[in-house]
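S.,

Sequence below, as promised.
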Amino acid sequence: METIQIVLDRQLLDSTDKAAKRLKQNRSALVRMALNDYLKRLEARVLEERDRAGYARIPEDVAEARIWESEAMWPAE
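The prediction came back faster than expected:
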């Protein structure tokens, strides 16, 4: 691991310290966890935007989608 320096305003630092204490973690562990979570959400958003742009360029063919409707339905009980 590498040591870095970041700047946080007092309110964010206090909230971070309180959350770390509640989770029984140190500040660095909490920041690592939060940053990892954020980066995963960011990657998912990038992929969703890519897919959305792709579907906008090549819209869904309604006739083709109907073929698969029966496959997507819940089976009868």
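The mean pLDDT is 91.

Coffee later?
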